Amino acid sequence: MIRNETEYQEAVRRLAEEKERLEAHKERLLEAGLSSAEVKRALDPLRSFQAQLEEEIDCYSGSSAATSPRSSTSTARRVVGRAADRARHHAARACRAARCARVPGLADERNDYHGITVERAERVLAALDVQMNSSFDLAARVPSRARRQRRAGE
Amino acid sequence: MEDKDHPNDIDGYFVCDLRRLASGELERDLNLLDPKKCWTWDPAQRRPFPGDPKRQLPMWHSYHVELYPHVGQLSGITDKYGNELEFPSAFRLSRNGTPRGIVQLLRGSP
Known about the structure:
The structure holds 2 protein chains of 2 kinds. By secondary structure, chain A is mostly helical.
């Protein structure tokens, strides 16, 4: 998983390059006389491999390729998803701090807390005797387009 | 192989002829052997797994493995000097660029 901004930028750069290479590879296969169905099958493994990177990028950037920002449902999903990511991020930071502090009972913990599960965070934080509270505020409701147009006309 | 808290699956590659992969013969032969018929690398067959942001191929859902055919193509993964690696080299590096051990499976004599 992508764990920080540096890795994120590297992944974005890599993905762009991979897409270019995939297209070039496709051209070579077509020139070699493979049919379009054969080219597809030959490229499927690379496409699947590449899709993982794409999803890791989507996950880190907080947006999902499967959701469209146009629908209010998907917007709500993104808001909740980001809040959950933020809570996990705070839990991960607390866990890293615990490891740095060499807290007894956490000797076996390794510094890999990205995407940490709630259960594991609870175990680590319990060893620290820490209670973590996470909260987020919903921004003021965005007026509907019709209401904005009415206001503009006033 | 990596020393991880929660190893998730087995990643690997195997050497294969491009024509065998492209013709569909490879998938067909593997699925003839497999009762779950899960062998495909078609991205459209990737499915989500609860709690995981990444979709996975049917082979992962069936056996928690990701095995890729190596036909001489580049993987998209680069070494610390920026050189793009083929699967055999890419699978021998961890994400942070340190060498990673692999287990090589050899077919025994019948």
